[in-house]
Amino acid sequence: MPWRVVVKRQFNAAHFLTDYHGAPEPLHGHTWCVEIHIRADSLDKGGMGVDFVEIDRFLKDILPDYKLLNEVFEFSPSAENVARWLFEKVKERFPTLEKVVVWETENCGAEYWEEE
Ligand SMILES: Nc1nc2c(c(=O)[nH]1)N=C([C@H](O)[C@H](O)COP(=O)(O)OP(=O)(O)OP(=O)(O)O)CN2
Ligand SMILES: [Zn+2]
């Protein structure tokens, strides 16, 4: 019987796409929101699949809060690329990670997962 444990966390960061239809985008900022989806096949005695608090602490440690993403990453910091980077980081700590979603705004975001 599977569950999916989902944690959201926000961070603030500036960025610009390095090639947006042929030219760099103007520098601008977002309150980014990330969602982490982790599969749990069983629950502990307390009824938890994976402790939300552990996931949230991990995110707090690794998310580039109040940074210029272009200085943090070597890739163009689109939502898609940030989602792939975050997936790889979170998967090392939580191997049953299924999907990461990165929202740049309330309405626009990108998901990353790995095919079986
Ligand atoms: N597939 C993607 N498309 C776009 C990305 C992205 O990461 N992946 N990123 C951007 C820009 O960085 C930009 O942040 C888009 O911001 P948004 O607010 O959605 O667009 P506007 O600035 O035009 O919005 P207004 O609030 O109306 O000014 C673009 N595309
Ligand atoms: Zn943007």
Automatic annotation (TrEMBL):
Gene Ontology molecular function, alphabetical: 6-carboxytetrahydropterin synthase activity; metal ion binding
Cofactor binding note of this UniProt entry: Binds 1 zinc ion per subunit.
Protein name: 6-carboxy-5,6,7,8-tetrahydropterin synthase
Positions of Zn(2+) binding: 15, 28, 30
SUPFAM superfamilies on file: Tetrahydrobiopterin biosynthesis enzymes-like
Catalyzed reactions per annotation: 7,8-dihydroneopterin 3'-triphosphate + H2O = 6-carboxy-5,6,7,8-tetrahydropterin + triphosphate + acetaldehyde + 2 H(+)
Keyword set, alphabetical order: Lyase, Metal-binding, Queuosine biosynthesis, Zinc
Organism: Thermocrinis albus (strain DSM 14484 / JCM 11386 / HI 11/12)
UniProt keyword Zinc, yes or no: yes
EC number: 4.-.-.-
Family: Belongs to the PTPS family. QueD subfamily.
Needed co-factor(s): Zn(2+)
One biological process term in Gene Ontology: tRNA queuosine(34) biosynthetic process
PANTHER family: 6-PYRUVOYL TETRAHYDROBIOPTERIN SYNTHASE, PYRUVOYL TETRAHYDROBIOPTERIN SYNTHASE
Pathway this chain belongs to: Purine metabolism; 7-cyano-7-deazaguanine biosynthesis
Top class in the EC scheme: lyase
